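Chain entry —
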Amino acid sequence: MTDRLDADSLADILIAQCRASDYAGYDPFDGLNSSFFKQLKLGALPFAKIAWLQLHKRSLWNLRPFVGVPRRRNPKGIALIILGLIERERRLCDGWSIKEATRLAEWLLEQRCDREKWKHSAWGYHFDWAARAFFVRSGTPNAITTCYVARALAALGLETGEPRLLEAATDAGLFVDSLFRADGGYYAYIPGESAFVHNANLWAAAVAGEAANRLGDDAMMHRAISAARRTVTMQRADGAWQYGTRDHHSFVDGFHTGYNLEALSALQRTVKFDEFDEAIRRGMAYYRDNFFLPDGTVKYYDNSVWPLDTHSVAQALLTLQSVDSGDDDHLLATRIFERAVDTLYMPRECRFMYQKGKLTTNRINYLRWTQAWAFYAIGAYANRVRLKGELQEQRQRRFEYLPGMTQ
């Protein structure tokens, strides 16, 4: 494609597209918000909940408008938008990005789960969520959503100097710490549930570790490090992690692998030690060798290309730029970005599609799963491209003016 958009322009197109709906949208897992399903009164049947949710997640056509599923803001999606707006401000310094991020942060503070019940700042999804491992009602906090919101609030608090945002992020870390299960030495995904999922455990460790660092809480920091060590001991010899420990968690996919590596790296930076260097090195080697084709196509699973998925692309861009990143990783990120624009971006709609299968394509617009991730990751990539260009210019200038060199 000769007229491919550059990363700066595409990031601006995506934020305009998201802002047009005031950041409200559909989600792959919001099917149980259907007013029609509630009228059917099948909610008491666990199988019916899972089947209905999977129908909407897997359908190539968006049935939600016809069964009464409303567009809503998603706290995790808003957190990703805030992180993307911070990247945009660093690139453009226009002031609007921080103003918009601050407006969205105020919304997040208003959307905290019941603080009397959960004691601390915490966030969950705006829909009931049925899975084989557990059923979670709307308004129940979970580790991953809380961690991403905490990261966004902390980053914005550091950018603006607003203490309330850092205080909320730290308080969220205390909630995450309450998910620690002493009987297994890991952080649970959901309060009261025992499922051990590596990406939730590691992001919880990273966010709890940051909060412990701010509070000077050695016991809390010890729990964060020990939880990370638990996941590291379960890394396979080839460097991979399965999704979790239950029988149906035996798959290895790209974006959860990226989560694990990014979170483990973030915790290590907070603690300022190198204990996890070898685990990160082996994990990154497996990631590079098993999730990318030479043309920049991002595989969904380590043993299967399909489906092509915008979320997987976004996490790949973030992982390659934030974890042990070098020139080769930057070149790979460039191929990934260009390939994603060619295969998953829809210029007429000014957005990315959800997934492309071997024989089918799902073009449904999912703000949290797709557009918010793409905006954040492409903005971070655009800043990395700019930084690389500036460093190259500086090296060139030094070379040109070395003694004895002619211009």
User: Anything to note?
Assistant: The domain at 74-400 is CATH 1.50.10.10 (Glycosyltransferase). The two ends are 36 Å apart (CA to CA).
